[in-house]
Design goal:
Distance between the termini of chain B: 47 Å
Number of helices of chain A: 12
Largest sheet of chain B: 3 strands, antiparallel
Radius of gyration of chain B: 19 Å
Strand content of chain B: 5-15%
Order of helices and strands of chain B: HHHHEHHEEH
Structural class of chain B: mainly alpha
Strand order of the largest sheet of chain B: 1-3-2
Shape of chain B: elongated
Structural class of chain A: alpha/beta
Largest interface: A-B, 37 and 38 residues
Number of helices of chain B: 7
Strand order of the largest sheet of chain A: 3-4-2-5-1-6-7-8
Helix content of chain B: 40-55%
Number of strands of chain A: 8
Oligomer: heterodimer
Largest sheet of chain A: 8 strands, mixed
Order of helices and strands of chain A: EHEHHEHEHHEHEHEHEHHH
Strand content of chain A: 15-25%
Distance between the termini of chain A: 14 Å
Chain lengths: 269, 119
């Protein structure tokens, strides 16, 4: 059964889009059919990691939400990017689609001004799953809690919450987990990101797991190498032996295994 | 003192009269209603064209016994949209439209006008 994975953080700057792009690419590289939807309509960023810019984005989630196009028309196969961008040739064999949000100022303005039908967004997710026969649909959400985030949370098989070792992140994450539990999300996992080297990661993981009663799926160090990549490309594929990349690969395996187990459990019920 | 869910609900706009519900509204429903609403929100058939009570009964694991009465009540109260005529009425979750924001309108419209005067 296809799985919906929403990736969320209560605050901005946690590295959500970067990690979503890396994990989704890793899972696609394992032979699965994967799509990512950028629902961060107010401050889209996912497209950058896959080499899109304003000139290469003809259609986006925004046009779909306004009823101008079908959702499939806003889904870009990464093979198309690989064909014209030598630095992204590794994407060529992947069954991976990106649904970007518009980066045109006027279109961001319009969606903020007029809003949109949230039910249309939910229809779009399911259309993508059916049309592209997806195994995994990733939803890159806007930080904080708003209509599209709540929808993404409510329909997820797995919700991943990113947080940094920061008091503001800790408090916001508590709110997010409360909401997710109230919406009966089947599986909630945490990822600690940007951990300074002076922290004892194991102690931090134990502390976070005890506080939130939720499993930490991974702990990523604050990496100058990742920062230097500057969202220019998919770091974990470019540098597969880097410790950050190894952690991402491990988390990707965990996601596949966890959701397969959960799927088997549902079939037995 | 209002709890966190009350504050979130206020943030999402209780004063919006455009109809429909948010997932937070669903979270506050009694158990049987909440289970049905969440299931319908997640089920691909129910999301797309809507679902009949018969199909819902077949597909939903451990559907509540009084499902017909619950669905009719949810539809009457605006939680579900009814499509088509009985006995083939289909139901889908009536999600509230995301509101536009007055602040966003002013700020972003000015930015858009300045950057793309011909847009």
């Amino acid at each position: 059964m296809p799985s919906i994975i929403s990736v969320h953080s209560f605050r901005g700057g946690t590295g959500k889009s970067n990690l979503t792009a890396n994990i989704a690419t890793q899972i696609a590289a394992r032979g699965f059919r994967v799509a990512i939807v950028d629902t961060d309509i107010q401050s889209p960023g996912l497209h950058v990691l896959f080499g899109f810019h304003e000139g290469t984005l003809d259609a986006s989630l925004n046009e779909y939400l306004w009823g101008q196009i079908e959702i499939e028309e806003a889904a870009y196969p990464v093979q198309a990017i690989a064909a014209r961008d030598q630095e992204r040739a590794f994407l060529y064999d992947l069954n991976l689609w990106i649904v970007p949000a518009s980066i045109r100022t006027s279109e961001i303005a319009r969606v903020l001004r007029e809003g949109y039908n949230v039910g249309t967004l939910n229809d779009g997710f399911n259309r993508l799953i059916n049309s592209f026969q997806l195994d995994y649909l990733f939803i890159d959400t806007h930080p904080g809690l708003n209509e599209e985030t709540l929808l993404s949370v409510a329909i997820s098989n797995l919700m991943i919450i990113l947080l940094r070792p920061d008091q503001q992140d800790f408090q916001g994450t508590a709110v997010t987990i409360d909401v997710a539990r109230k919406l009966e999300v089947p599986d909630i996992r945490l990822i600690l990101n940007k951990i300074p080297s002076r922290y004892d990661s194991d102690a931090l993981i134990a502390d976070v797991e005890a506080t939130y009663q939720a499993q930490v799926m991974g702990a990523l160090p604050l990496s100058e190498d990742v920062a230097m990549n500057g969202s220019n490309n998919i770091f974990s594929v470019l540098y597969p032996d880097h410790p950050w990349s190894r952690a991402v690969q491990s988390m990707s395996d965990t996601i596949v295994t966890t959701l397969a187990r959960s799927d088997r459990g549902q079939q037995h019920r | 003192m209002p709890g966190i869910f009350d504050r979130l609900q206020a943030e999402l706009g209780d004063d919006d009269n455009s109809g429909g519900v948010t997932p937070l509204d669903i979270a506050d429903l009694p158990e049987a209603e909440r289970r049905i609403m969440l299931w319908m929100l997640r089920d691909r058939m129910a999301t797309g064209d809507g679902i009949t009570i018969g199909t819902l009964n077949e597909r939903m694991p451990s559907a509540p016994g009084d499902i017909l009465a619950i669905i009719e009540r949810l539809a009457r109260d605006g939680w579900l949209i009814s499509l088509g005529e009985p006995p083939n009425t289909r139901y889908k979750v009536n999600l509230r439209r995301k509101r536009g924001g007055a602040t966003g309108f002013g700020l972003w419209s000015i930015v858009a006008d300045r950057l793309n005067p011909n847009d």
